[in-house]
Amino acid sequence: MLKTMFNSDLSGKKIIIILLLAISVSSCAIKINYSYLQNYNRETFEGANAVVVYDSTGVELEKDGKYVYEQHKLVKILTMKGKAMFSEAVFGYFTKYDTVIVEQAKVISPDGEVLNVSKEDIKDVKIPAFGKFFLPNVRMKKIIFPNLEEGSSVEYLVKTISKNPPMENHFNTAVIFEGTEPIQKMVFSINSPIGLSWIKTNDDDNAIIFQENKGEDKILYKWRIKDIPGIVEEPMMPPLSDISKKIVISSIDSWKDCSKWYYELCKDKYVTNDTMNAVIDSLLVGQETREDSIRVLYYYVSKNIRYVGTKMTGEKGGYEPFPATKTFKEKYGVCRDKACLLVAMLRQAGIDADIVLINPMQVVEKEIPHIAQFNHAITAVINEDGSYIFIDGTAENTSEFLMSIEQDKAALVCNEEGEDLLLTPKVPPEENLMLINAVGNISEAGELTEKATMELSGLMGMAFRQILTKLPPEQFKQIFNMMITEMISGAVLDTFYYSDPEDLNKLLEITIEFSSDDFGLRLDENFSFKFPFSSGQGTGASISIGGGGNPFALEQRKYPLFFYTTLKTEVNEKIVIPEGFKVKELPETLDEDLGFFKTESRYTISEDSITHKAVNSFCEYIFSPDEYKEMKTILDLMSQKSGQEVVLIKKGGQE
Fold first, then answer.
1. pTM of the prediction?
2. Cβ–Cβ < 8 Å for 139, 125
3. Is the distance from CB of 538 to CB of 438 less than 8 angstroms?
4. Whole-angstrom Cα distance, residue 426 to residue 404?
5. Which of 11, 53, 134, 631 could be joined to 74 by an S-S link, Cβ 3.0–4.6 Å?
């Protein structure tokens, strides 16, 4: 990189002198012509926090899969948010596989003055513990850029040396060519002696340009792009990697090769011992069916083996699991360890099972076999007909075998013969259900007392089980108090209780009782009110989506709406009306079925009561911008109708 600073006609002696001078003032400000960076400003890039001026990565690949990866990146900072975003550059690596070297790092001030980042501001540290994971042999190289301000730029040249490829003699990677900030120029190249297959995604305008140059021993593959605007993020959009321009590259011939490779890593880990066998035998006592046996072993792993990671060891640490006996003894492990243990226990019980690779959060590009697309491991039970029951041993608060966010996801069963990629089953919305049955009574004085019971299954049950086991009862009470006061101003929570959240054999139920001394509006002979669970924030759609924001706030979307799961809410609320009153007006009925989304809101009258049924079914978990527009039209109409009131009139009164 230093040679780009000097004219090509300088003599060797002069270059040496200048290099020595540069080294001697490595932490001091020096003048280099970066005047062209003045062209990157807030006026030219309206709304941007920073501009990626240049991002060039070159990979020198060897036949055994080892490689040297070198990235040169220059970013111009436009705002204070941009300063926060690019004040550090972090490069994570696993010591068993990689070495990271910072060859150059600079800060360019707004007036073009250059400050080389000092060695003290380039750190090699352990990755901080996150969640349940503390991994001392996973580290990060961190560049801290000093003296940043609006108008500054940061530049670095970083080399990664891979010394132990996960899959010998193979290479695979994915490169994203789009982000939240504009990119002026980006290049990615691989000089490879290995034949590579690749695809590009989300590039309808063919902005990614590809070139291939064949040399004597290697082929140079090069992709480049320029003048790409930043992605404007939207509420509940898919992960950026699923919507960005991207290339996926691999030398692996088939998914079966990936399946067999991972099987070989795991096959010796499934051995059990006498202590394990005794526990397995005791768990199976009294289990009447094959499913009962599967479930009791699954519950044991999910509840008794903590989902915790401390160190990645072994020849392929980070990929291969610990032996099942070790995980069983130590009572902790990450996803692959728990999946391996469950396979071992199931096999010991006479139930065929294999380990499975999956990515619950992001799309796996099926056309290109690529092991790095997976980030999670689960278990598959093999049925007599060759079908599978997928089980996630890390799901600690659900009775379902597989978390609903793992539905319809690419999965790779890993066995000796090798398997092709397949999809996990799609979950009907009824299996992720929040059902509310409520009965309220209104006195002639306008006092309301109501009791509501929520039945929660699937993702809904899992979420509430987790809350109930983590939060103290007093804090949970505050949550319900807030919910009730949002539905009815001045209402109070009288009591609440719930079933045992740790008993996965029973449906989770939560019961609340609340009251209001001044419910509805009395005007002459009329009495009007809204059903508590069917107005405002109490609508089924609002409850089902949750998350503290309205994903339907945008008039239109550029990107899909992403729910992660199918789901359904149903509210059956009965209000017993005061004696001496009859129904004068009811809100209008709404009944819409788009196939991917269904909604119903219907009021019915009996002798002394009114019942409201409100159902919302999201039959898909990802909705295109056009589908979003159709749903929003209906939900806006639903919101308008939720403002309609029930009107009662005194019997014998003038209508």
1. 0.87
2. yes
3. no
4. 8
5. 53
